[in-house]
Design a protein that fits this description.
alpha/beta; 10 strands; 477 residues
Amino acid sequence: MAKVFNELCEFYYVDKLEKLENDLKIEQEYREIYRQKKNDRILKKLHHFDLRFSHKVFPMEIKLGNVENFYNQEYRSAYKKIYFKIMLLKKAETQKYFRQSKKQVPNFEQLHLERWKLINDKEKDLADRLKVHYDKLIVKNSLDENQKKDLQKQYDLLNKNHLLKRDKLKNKLESKTAAKLETYLKKSDKKIARLQQKIALNHTKLNNVKKVYDKVLDDGVVLELNQVSMHFGGLKAVDQLSFKVYDGDIFGLIGPNGAGKTTVFNCITQFYKMTSGEAWFNNNENVLVKLNDLKVYNVIKHGIARTFQNVELAWELSILDNLKVAAHSLYKSSLFDQFFHTRKYLKEEEIITKKALDVLDYLDLSAYKDVPPLGLPYGILKRIELARTLMSNPKLIILDEPAAGLNDKETAELSELIIKIKNDYHATIFLVEHDMGLVMNICNRICAISFGKLLAIGTPEEIQNNKNVQEAYLGGE
């Protein structure tokens, strides 16, 4: 009875701590977003102020033939309307493609490509017609030299007065924003102090009831597998496998087809419950976790993220939304918060959206953020999958054949990207890959298996020179 009570208490304090720590994290991260929002608001108001002036002097600019300013403002503004119109047509076409593919309409792919070409042609035609219209407008309103000089003086005077008013407005907005920011930061500091106090108190209570493991990992070990086996009936997919992955490693798992590599990943991430053995992980909070005890949907919360052999994306959603879905473990707001869009939910949404945009920018995917992944090159899709793993603040990233289907250039870029992610995100990389060039170039330690059994563990040079690996994997000398 006492054991059950202790387990219930542990569950209660762990859940409470998770909510408190999430509230603290939101409050700390939102401070910078709040500051940025206020600065953006200043820029937005100044932009509207400039825009009003631009509309006021617009007839002058046409008569003066100021083509550069004209195209930069009015032409681009008009073209943006065309862009949104075409974007809606493309979204409608994408949805139509999905409906026809589900109904198995004959030749639907060919019809889709033909309609897509018509949409692109329409966009080009509208843009060309718009440019011709504006060119004619400039010619029509041209003036002689004396008229231009008089109009130029009037324009310069208006512009000078505008700049003076703009500086005055900017100073006023900045002083007002600074006062608001100071008030907000004082309230935020008090809230953070209260949350830290509550967290410390609940940690003390949790330590009195939590289960303590006898197991202690060696220094620097992030993941340890101890005598792990996975049997499917009489088939031993993994057989008494043991190895350690150290913090900061790029650790490779190699073996022939059917050696059990993906099964090892599935055992670590609890897609499969291992037949025997133990898997231990030192999580984001440097707390030792026995992975065997976790549900599959809780593994990501401890800092393990993975990709799959096949690209697994939500094809109907934009790439930005795909990344936000991948951050589901970071959402802590309740159903009530999400239904009524409370302040907590809105803060959380802003933080995750900013994180997604930062990840897209980091991986050079910002240009694709608003489009669905359907029809994008395979190399881009692989990079989007990699971006999704970064959304959950992983300590260990598991990559299942990341270079599959990539050409030599894309594979070389992927190698550089994996090393960059490891260094910039301070993550440990654990990968399965058949491309031996990639494995030998980027991995500092490699584990070779065959028929679920361990062959060798060591550096790339040691694995290349190991006779057992050469015979079982490389075909011998």
